[in-house]
Design brief:
By secondary structure, the chain is of the alpha/beta class. It is built from 13 helices and 10 strands.
Length: about 375
């Protein structure tokens, strides 16, 4: 007997219900169904606080998401207050951390967080997984609470339209020369890499010598800018002739065809051994052997750490290791920042010649962190807030 339309509809409906029940049972048994909310579980996430420039950080975060299927929720800060503002936020959240991973474009704030007990030590991954090369001791905390990678440097930049390379300063002393009065600029020292630079100078030379140099800089009518990129812009517009900034700001300026060039700070201990330098006389008549001996360029690595008690520890460890990976260092070296990998084998001979700092200063970041309060007090007293 032929079935009626109603019977056909009933039969099809029964099949649909049966298939739905089977799918639900499979999802339930596999743990892919949230019975309470009646929906699939949310995707895995990890919260990243970072002072790295937003476009670069997002590119790395997107690559991590593609490879691991974990969404990175990023929290950044402004150009003028980056690192410093985020450090204050992390300290305020100490008892109830919201961040999983901290990625900083400099090490000083990271060391301060470690001293406050906010960072969770993690086992160092091998620098080169292919041969098991250990992570270098100079690029990690002794307890594994932070790791360093991908380096920039503090440099003496100058307007190449007005100043010849042979006449441009190569020491910080030369910035106080009468010929440069009113023509030198720096970022406000309370923030970012300038803050780290000032603290490093205080640690290496002592507070008395540091204050004397800063007072001479003030007497020479130094101009203060809201960030290192603003210093590079001021150079390009002829507001200043010379400024302290970072290598990445110089590279970015040159990509914009701005007339900005740079020198790494000389290392006078090498000069004494015949390894280069400009002799005893500086531009503008400043003595090259008086106050604040030049100890080489301050090299500033990126740092990464996992927050103690973070909400997503497994995802945090994966992201931290990804940020320290060969892949990330290679990606960062190709960005506008042109950071120098600690894995120098990732660079060609020409790249090493162009970007590796020839005579870097020896910096103990724990000592720099200890010198920070006094350095900032001196900066405020001499330069104002």
């Amino acid at each position: 007997m032929a079935r009626t339309a109603r019977e056909w509809a009933f039969g099809i409906g029964a099949v649909v219900v049966l298939l739905a029940a089977i799918v639900f049972a499979i999802l339930a048994m596999s743990g892919r169904w949230d019975r309470a909310a009646n929906k699939l579980p949310p995707p895995r996430t990890v919260v990243l606080y970072t002072s790295v420039d937003d476009p670069i950080a997002r590119e790395i975060a997107d690559r991590f998401r593609v490879e691991f299927g974990i969404i990175v929720e990023m929290v950044g800060d402004t150009e003028a207050t980056k690192t410093t503002g985020l450090i204050q936020r992390l300290l305020a959240e100490k008892d109830n951390p919201r961040a999983d991973v901290w990625w900083s474009s400099e090490p000083l704030g990271t060391v301060l967080l470690a001293k406050q007990g906010l960072l969770q030590p993690i086992e160092s991954p091998p620098l080169d997984p292919a041969n098991g090369t250990p992570w270098p001791a100079e690029f990690r905390a002794a307890d594994g609470s932070w790791h360093a990678f991908a380096q920039r440097a503090r440099v003496i930049a100058y307007n190449s339209r007005w100043i010849k390379s042979t006449d441009a300063p190569t020491t910080l002393r030369q910035l106080t020369a009468p010929a440069l009065k009113g023509k030198v600029g720096i970022a406000r020292p309370q923030f970012g890499t300038t803050r780290a630079h000032m603290a490093a100078l205080a640690a290496m030379h002592g507070p008395v010598e540091f204050r004397r140099w800063l007072e001479a800089l003030k007497a020479n009518e130094v101009k203060l800018y809201d960030g290192n990129s603003a210093v590079a812009r001021g150079l390009s517009m002829g507001e200043i002739d010379v400024g302290l900034t970072d290598t990445d700001d110089v590279w970015s300026a040159q990509l914009n065809a701005w007339p900005v060039a740079m020198h790494y700070e000389a290392n006078e201990s090498k000069v004494a051994d015949g390894a280069g330098g400009r002799g005893e006389e500086a531009p503008g008549g400043a003595s090259a052997r008086t106050e604040l001996p030049s100890l080489g360029a301050i090299v500033i690595p990126n740092t990464v750490a996992v927050l103690k008690g973070c909400p997503n520890p497994r995802e945090a460890r994966l992201l931290a290791e990804f940020l320290m990976s060969q892949q990330t260092e290679a990606m960062l070296a190709k960005t506008e920042q042109r950071t120098v990998p600690i894995r120098t084998y990732l660079m060609s001979d020409n790249e090493r010649k162009a970007y590796v700092v020839p005579t870097p200063a020896s910096v103990d970041w724990d000592r720099v962190a200890e010198a920070l309060p006094e350095a900032m007090k001196i900066c405020e007293e001499v330069l104002g807030d």
